[in-house]
Amino acid sequence: xxxxxxxxxxxxxxxxxxxxVFARAGFSVNLHDASKDMLNGAIASIRESxxxxxxxxxxxxxxxxxVARIKTCESLEEAVSDAxxxxxxxxxxxxxxxxxxxxxxxxxxxxxxxxxxxxxLPASTFTQGLKGGARCLVAHPVxxxxxxxxxxxxxxxxxxxxxxxxxxxxxxxxxQKPVTVNREISGFLLNRLQGAVLDEALSLxxxxxxxAADLDTVMRDGLAMRWSFMGPFETIDLxxxxxxxxxxxxxxxxxxxxxxxxxxxxxxxEILTKLDAERRAVLPRDQIENRSSWRDRRLMALIAHRLAxxxxx
Length: 313
Prior knowledge:
Strand order of the largest sheet: 3-2-1-4-5-6-7-8
Number of strands: 8
Number of domains: 2
Radius of gyration: 21 Å
CATH architecture of the largest domain: 3-Layer(aba) Sandwich
CATH superfamily of the largest domain: NAD(P)-binding Rossmann-like Domain
CATH class of the largest domain: Alpha Beta
Order of helices and strands: EHEHHEHEHEHEEHEHHHHHH
Low-confidence stretches: none
Largest sheet: 8 strands, mixed
Number of helices: 13
CATH topology of the largest domain: Rossmann fold
Distance between the termini: 40 Å
Strand content: 5-15%
Shape: globular
């Protein structure tokens, strides 16, 4: 097993971004995909993304040097044979993941870590009964991990604590910001927090309190301004002279009232159709990919700003 060798299984957006994360940090990366077309197009797409990063001065080496660390492998066995970490990125379905992890358990070094990028499936649903189940975990990234560094580590009940610690060290070495989810929970941490905000935004929209555009403005030009560099606990700690305890004394009644009057959103089709029409008036469907690329470049600019601010501190 090579401690600097990573295997990426699945070369969609997440898989390609993971390849950039590890190659940029000096790891060697093997790519594999069951689709030959996806695999054959992966390197060119990765090169384009690394060029974008370089344009914002977010790489320390040339694009050629980074991409040279990434190799495509037609066979799964070749891709994972000496990997210290395998990062799986296939479809969000239990059975295909279970089949793949059974293969990985047979083909990899017994000490290699087997991690899934799943955004919602607990590791226990696809690793139960594996001989190497103690080394299996979820490593849930934010799309794209090459721009958003958070990765949530969550093991199954049988995952060894030592495996979580080793995984944490590898992701930190790759420049990511790993957090540990202490026990399995649907959606992990990020999607539960995101889901709570999304549920309330959709509910307020459904009840006619505001347009979709104005609710986006509330987040983009309000909450997100602070949340781009501090979390909710630090936010409230700074929003009252006496910190968290003072904030709770001042505003807990308001939040209790909000909770008591909340109307959960049940995803009715007519509201979603209305919301989609509102969004399509702003952004035609054939422009979504272009806007996604714009979002990624804005993230790059934000990262560059944060790095510059850190250097001045």
